[in-house]
Amino acid sequence: MHLQYDFLTDPTPAEIRQIMDLYRMADWWDAGDDAHQDLIRRIVSGSHCFLTARNGDLLVGMGRAISDGINDAYLQDIMVMPNLRHQGVGTQIVEKMVKRLRQDGLRWIGLIAGSQSHPFYRRLGFEEMPFSTPMLWKERTSP
């Protein structure tokens, strides 16, 4: 299978639906969120770069980076359809994104690896950051 990798800036309605499908596949998007399709358009346009992997018209993988545009960038939302995992698609996505970020002058490239993905990212040159813990702000509910 020959996949095409493209940076996306202005997704079509069909691409938006497929991006939502990829998020749902990863359990990062609830079915009820479909009413907020404009959110996907804003996610794509607000990213430093948004890369898609395609088999014809079908999006089979994606990744995006957020950045200050000067020095730092974070890879986010790297995902590949389950039936295409372990075939180099994710590797291509990460390598193409890192290459693009380096070409854009960004030197500090980080990510938060999921519990099972550490070995994958280590093979691609990422290392754990000593004395660092990923953290997420959570809104507190009042009693």
Question: Rg, please?
Answer: 16 Å
The helix content, as a percent range, equals 25-40%
| Arrangement of strands in the largest sheet | 1-2-3-4-5
Low-confidence stretches: none
Task: Write a structural description.
The protein is α+β, with helices and mostly antiparallel strands and 143 residues long. It has four helices and five strands; from the N terminus they run βααβββαβα. It has a five-stranded mixed β-sheet, with helices on both faces. It is globular, with a radius of gyration of 16 Å. It starts with a strand and ends in a 20-residue tail after the last helix. The relative contact order is 0.14.
Concise overview:
This protein has four helices and five strands, in the order E-H-H-E-E-E-H-E-H. It has helices at 13-25, 37-46, 89-103, 118-123, and strands at residues 4-7, 49-55, 58-67, 72-80, 108-110.
